[in-house]
Design brief:
This protein is an alpha+beta fold. About 50% of the residues lie in helices and about 10% in strands.
Length: about 350
């Protein structure tokens, strides 16, 4: 079980009903939406906005029957959809009735699938254990996040129960499904050959730069003067002046000036986007044009490019085996779900 953060806990609830198509993603660089305002309570802690009830009022009250009379109602599905659908609405997404019908259908299938897997796991002695779920959270230092979930319409009890259910299913899968499957050598070789383009060493670039800072309040004339100064500097180094020596003399980067502008090896995703685009477009030995970032103006020089080539099979064998095993596990679990649902006479009423 991966370490749970606020986003991970929200996603645990938000993606349940949005599997296979309408998943809501929460990226670290995108702020969380504001907490839900308790405008209207329909008896479900994750359905506290009137928009949710109005959006789904075209559906019948009972959506599914199975096992000779067990029912899955619209309100139950709204409990599942609450977090994810509210996130989508707050992000400005709008849904037609057809979209909502498909989303609800997937929500129902997800709920039925989880119910089936919990039953199967329980028959093999793997039952939800809220104590174990709390212990897992405590190990990860995530207990304090539970209270923070409430403003988003998610009760602590629901989070703990959902985690305990997932742990029970995971433990059953590991013991009764994964353990029965094998990954053959030829499967690993075939998978690697078919996906070789995806197994690459991350490209690293050894770079140096010369930076002139620009005061955010500087006039356009002052900024142009700094840009002109750096263009003149580029002409000097292009004509043969030592880049490192020039950096020691004029660069205003406190990190690299004493090292002749040397920033060492960088990989994609570690620097300012504009700086990185320029650095990864340069050929070794070439000095860039003036690059503008939030902190100033730069001249960039690439000394060496490392990596970027394919990784041999032995370097990714364990990763490939795990990918293949996960595929096999998913297929096996899906077949179990399908067989269980066939035996339960599921009838959709919408």
């Amino acid at each position: 079980m991966k370490k749970l953060t606020m986003r991970a806990l929200l996603l645990l609830l938000a993606t349940i009903a949005f599997v296979s198509g309408q998943s809501i993603t929460i990226d670290d660089d995108v702020p969380l939406p504001p907490p839900l305002a308790p405008i209207e309570d329909i008896g479900a802690p994750t359905s506290q906005t009137p928009s949710l009830q109005k959006l789904l009022e075209f559906l019948p009250e009972v959506l599914v029957t199975y096992d000779g009379g067990t029912r899955l109602t619209r309100i139950q599905v709204m409990e599942e959809l609450g977090v994810g659908l509210n996130f989508a609405l707050q992000q400005g997404r709008r849904f037609s009735e057809g979209d909502l019908r498909q989303i609800v259908r997937r929500s129902v299938q997800s709920t039925l699938g989880r119910t089936v897997l919990l039953d199967v796991a329980g028959r093999h002695g793997f039952k939800p254990d809220v104590g174990l779920a709390r212990d897992k959270l405590a190990e990860q230092g995530s207990n304090e996040l539970l209270g923070a979930m409430h403003p988003y319409g998610v009760s602590e009890e629901k989070v703990i129960m959902r985690i305990s259910e997932q742990l029970a299913i995971d433990h059953w899968v590991d013991a009764r499904v994964r353990g029965q499957l094998r990954v053959e050598i030829r499967e690993v070789q075939n998978f690697y050959e078919q996906n070789k383009a995806h197994f690459k060493q991350p490209e690293q670039r050894h770079i140096s730069h010369i930076m002139l800072a620009i005061d955010p309040g500087a006039s356009p004339e002052a900024a142009d003067e700094r840009r002109s100064q750096l263009k003149t500097t580029r002409e000097h180094v292009s004509a043969g002046a030592d880049f490192a020596e020039v950096a020691r003399q004029i660069s205003e980067c406190p990190v690299s000036r004493s090292k002749g502008g040397d920033l060492g090896l960088i990989t994609s995703g570690t620097m300012n986007a504009a700086f990185e685009r320029a650095a990864f477009a340069l050929q070794p030995g070439v000095v860039s044009d003036v690059v503008v970032t939030e902190i100033g103006l730069h001249l960039i020089k690439v000394h060496e490019v490392k990596g970027g080539g394919p990784i041999e099979l032995e370097g990714v064998r364990e990763q490939v085996e795990e990918l293949i095993m996960n595929q096999k596990v998913n297929i096996a679990v899906q077949k179990i779900v399908e067989l269980e649902l066939q035996a339960r006479n599921v009838e959709y009423l919408f």
